[in-house]
């Protein structure tokens, strides 16, 4: 009797599995991929879509086509609950699918400060899903034709740096093409901007932002979101016609709601084989897991490093083979796209800025896209 593998989500960690689907199918293993959209944008290139450096198609994996071309099943839907006892997943459409092995690559989400539901706040866009950035660019273009817009980027990490820089790049491109009024762009960075980067990297980032008139505020965290602006923890109200949330990410509540063992961040608690510590027939990759041996930062490089191990262990779990240990590796390269053809590169003690840094990032990102699906 054939066994069934379900892949929930089609992010960084699963694209390698999609590339190896025929290996599973040739051994009488049926594979179903469940993902909300037929195209999955690569988050590493997302900010570049905002500034117009890339088109949405250029940064998207055709996950539905990849799945169907291999002979597997693709369902455009979302897993909303896992029943580990019945070994089934419940979809938002109401469908229920059984599995022998389940792999989760459901990404992460932006935490919401305050009590106002996000759907009640117009012109507020979290950076995830990445497709939101397409809407941000469209909205910016509309606002620029109406007058000088106040644009707020909420968050103090590298994502806010990239979003602010690429918003500026978008505004420059729109202004050159259609005219209008250039916006005022501000980063509300909490109490310390880019606290996890080296001093040299922070200095280069500040210089780039200052050169383009992008202001950074470090007067407190966002306490409440509202229509037309935000309230900081010190009570100060900051107005904004367009707000982009880059406040950091956390795993979705799917795993916790489903009664699976999770880590302190809510991610699926996995062992050194990327296997659930409570349910050995469930595996995970990317931002949605909590690596029990030691916590991993929520950066795409770990999802990429998990590729080969996840493929091997899913196959081994379905065929009775031996599992392979995931070794996260040491220092990793960070490169940020500043939206004007320049970037900042950091690895260990090395920091580079300028056009060369962006070219390195652009090369790495395109190589990844061409390796899996494009």
User: Strand order across the biggest sheet?
Assistant: 5-2-1-9-19
Radius of gyration of CA atoms, rounded to a whole number:
21 Å
Under CATH, the topology of the largest domain is which? FAD/NAD(P)-binding domain
Question: Quick check: average pLDDT?
Answer: 93
Overall tally of structural domains: 2
Which oligomerization state do the chains in this entry correspond to? Answer: single chain
Low-confidence stretches: none
Given the C-alpha coordinates, what overall shape results?
globular
Class inferred from helices and paired strands: alpha/beta
The CATH architecture name of the largest domain reads 3-Layer(bba) Sandwich
Tell me the name of the CATH class of the largest domain.
Alpha Beta
Q: What characterizes the major β-sheet?
A: 5 strands, parallel
Cα end-to-end separation: 35 Å
E-strand count: 23
